[in-house]
């Protein structure tokens, strides 16, 4: 029961955070500064005249290796687990909100640079309603549609924030090596040149 309460609290805090930002919070495994959760205003009651502060939560480091998980392919509803990730390639998880303009821009930029990332497993993961995610790539990143290394996944049980990381902003990128070890991560918007450099280094 306590575990469920904590997960619900994390989810509430995540939903209350700004899901798009002009400035990203860059982190990597070589320079791991201890980060703390930013306080953000959110409303607990409707209507409300005074926004309240979300509680400050400890910001843990991301999972150092890809954990066991179960997501679902948005198009088919088929489950997708760690065992389904093709071996021998880097893997990038992008935690996103389909309504986030910065997430839309990043997806479009990745699409235009597909030739540079075609050998990386790329998974767009969201806790949003699958109906909102269904046409995300078709709308904002047409060049990624149908690519064998790209998938949009529904996180039905909020496993990402429980097992991998709770970011401060969307989009949040997590790059793992071919051996499944965390290489680098960041949240918020970033230039496409820097994104490609981190994906391919």
TrEMBL record:
The keyword Metal-binding does not apply. Residues 1-26 form the signal peptide. Residues 40-60 are annotated as: Disordered. This is Thioredoxin domain-containing protein. Keywords: Signal. It comes from Sphingobacterium thermophilum. Residues 40-53 have a biased composition (Polar residues). The lineage of its organism: Bacteria, Pseudomonadati, Bacteroidota, Sphingobacteriia, Sphingobacteriales. It comes from the Bacteria. Residues 60-201 form the Thioredoxin domain. The keyword Transmembrane does not apply. SUPFAM superfamilies: Thioredoxin-like.
């Amino acid at each position: 029961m306590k575990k469920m309460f904590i997960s619900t609290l994390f989810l509430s805090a995540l939903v209350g955070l700004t899901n798009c930002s002009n400035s990203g919070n860059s982190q990597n495994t070589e320079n791991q500064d201890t980060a703390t959760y930013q306080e953000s205003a959110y409303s607990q009651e409707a209507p409300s005249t005074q926004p309240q502060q979300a509680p400050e939560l400890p910001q843990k480091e991301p999972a150092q290796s890809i954990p066991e998980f179960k997501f679902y392919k948005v198009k088919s509803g088929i489950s997708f687990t760690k065992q389904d990730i093709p071996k021998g390639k880097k893997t990038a998880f992008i935690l996103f909100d389909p309504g986030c303009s910065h997430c839309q821009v990043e997806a479009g930029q990745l699409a235009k640079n597909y030739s540079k990332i075609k050998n990386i497993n790329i998974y767009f993961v969201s806790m949003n309603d699958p109906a909102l995610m269904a046409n995300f790539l078709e709308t904002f990143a047409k060049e990624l549609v149908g690519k064998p290394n790209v998938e949009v996944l529904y996180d039905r049980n909020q496993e990402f924030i429980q097992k991998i990381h709770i970011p401060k902003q969307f989009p949040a990128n997590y790059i793992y090596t071919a051996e499944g070890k965390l290489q680098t991560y960041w949240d918020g918007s970033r230039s496409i040149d820097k994104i490609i450099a981190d994906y391919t280094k």
